[in-house]
Write a structure and sequence with these properties.
This protein has 407 residues and is of the alpha/beta class. Helices cover 35% and strands 27% of the residues. The structure holds adenosine-5'-diphosphate (ADP), aspartic acid (ASP) and magnesium ion (MG). The site of aspartic acid has 13 residues, from helix 7.
Length: 407
């Protein structure tokens, strides 16, 4: 079998752990498998590099920022290749550029366009273990690019797709995907399987155990994707599956996701007439700011209030854009709140079970948690609440949907 193994930052946090990873790889190779390894930077390293950039140039130049923040992974590929050689395993490190992972040129959040597998294939056939830097690639002009936070997951899955690997294993500090972040709810349970659809929603709603793009890739290219612990030798982890493969007895809700990284902006006294939403959100989109939830109230006296959420990092910028536009739009005032968060319940079982929303709202009401915004899709319900209730809300919903009970 050809296996891609991706090791996250905590799994390569120090020399001892790197040596442990090398031993695990050696065991797989001894079983007759070909192994391509993708590694992240040592834990904390990417944050440190970002902070350095900000200290030198607060509005970091994106091209140069990628030059800096891609270096964390270059250290770990070298170290892991050395650890492998030290136990007599033929190994070779590869930067993203050396593999030729071609991306677009959106620095700091580039997308992978193509992967040249020729060199890797040649080395694999000669018995090498390949150690590839996650999170990085190169654009057409040879500029170094990075794939966004958590991007090593995507490197792993993209390599699995390009090499048509039998499985992509994501090794991390938890032994699988849980019903919610086990750091927030200790009673969270590990799921043996989760569907691609659910995992996509969980990832996009804030569960950072897998970068969303890695799940998209795996779904699109039918990569067998598994999340496992790098600290345990036993265990099957969590397999991401297509829905048909899952057993018939679906729980209604599979998991609770949350995102602290949210902010809400409200434009008060907006004229209630055609074109207003376009005027407001068009300006926001032009500034490359993603908008998530949107609410427009029923107009009264010819005017209405218009609210939407953005990433917390874009809050100040978005607010400024709208304040400058106030006279033009004919609105009264812009107010904002960056102390909010989003909590979501996700599950394909929702499709066939009505009443999920009311159960969710009831559980929150019983704790006196006020819901500021709601959005739904076929398989998820999200609410925006005050950030200070985040942990409470997640725990309460986890219990309300009996996620702490064995299914
Ligand atoms: P790595 O450095 O290995 O990429 P990450 O920190 O990116 O690891 O992802 C693993 C972390 O994701 C876990 O430590 C856990 O706190 C968090 N997490 C959030 N939601 C979930 C979930 N539903 N199941 C498992 N882990 C989750
Ligand atoms: N080192 C990068 C980050 O911290 C990529 C990754 O770990 O997946 O975001
Ligand atoms: Mg990660």
């Amino acid at each position: 079998m050809l296996i891609i193994q991706k090791y996250g930052g905590t799994s390569v946090a120090n020399p001892e752990r790197i040596k442990n990873v090398a031993k695990r790889i050696a065991r797989f190779q001894a079983q007759g498998h070909q192994v391509v390894v993708v590694v992240s930077a040592m834990s904390g390293e990417t944050n440190r590099l970002i902070a350095l950039c900000k200290e030198v140039q607060p509005a970091c130049d994106p091209r140069e920022m990628d030059v800096v923040i891609s270096t964390g992974e270059q250290v770990t590929i070298g170290l892991l290749a050395m650890a492998l050689k030290d136990i007599d395993i033929k190994a070779k490190s590869y930067t993203g550029g050396q593999v030729r992972i071609l991306t677009d040129n959106t620095f700091t959040k580039a997308r992978i366009l193509a992967i040249d597998e020729a060199n890797m294939r040649r080395d694999l056939n000669q018995g090498y273990v390949l150690v590839v830097a996650g999170f990085q690639g190169e654009d057409e002009e040879g500029n170094i690019t990075t794939l966004g936070r958590g991007g090593s997951d995507t490197t792993g899955v993209a390599l699995a797709a390009a090499l048509k690997a039998d499985e992509c294993q994501i090794y991390t500090d938890v032994d699988g995907v849980y019903t919610t972040d086990p750091r927030v709810v200790p009673e969270a349970r590990k799921l043996d399987t989760i569907t691609f659809e659910e995992m996509l929603e969980m990832a996009s709603l804030g569960s950072k155990v897998l970068q969303i793009r890695s799940v998209e890739f795996a779904g699109k290219y039918k990569v067998k994707l598994r999340v496992l612990s790098s600290f345990e030798d036993e265990g099957e982890g969590t397999l991401i599956t297509v829905e048909e493969e899952k057993n018939m007895e679906q729980p209604i809700i599979s998991g609770i996701a949350f995102n602290r990284d949210e902010a809400k902006i409200t434009v008060l006294g907006v004229p209630d007439k055609p074109g207003i939403a376009y005027q407001i959100l068009g300006a926001i989109a032009e500034a490359n700011i993603d908008v998530d939830m949107i609410i427009q109230n029923v107009g009264q006296d010819g005017s209405t209030d218009f609210s939407f959420t953005v990433n917390r990092g874009d809050f100040v910028k978005a607010q400024k854009i709208l304040e400058d536009m106030l006279p033009q739009v004919g609105a009264r005032q812009v107010i904002g709140d960056n102390k909010i968060c989003k909590v979501s319940a996700v599950g394909v079982g929702m499709r066939s079970h009505p009443g999920v929303a009311s159960r969710m709202f009831k559980a929150l009401a019983e704790e006196g948690i006020n819901i500021q915004m709601i959005s739904t899709s076929e398989i998820k319900i999200s609410v925006v609440i005050d950030e200070k209730y985040l942990e409470l809300a997640v725990r309460v919903l986890h219990r309300a949907f009996q996620l702490d009970q064995p299914s």
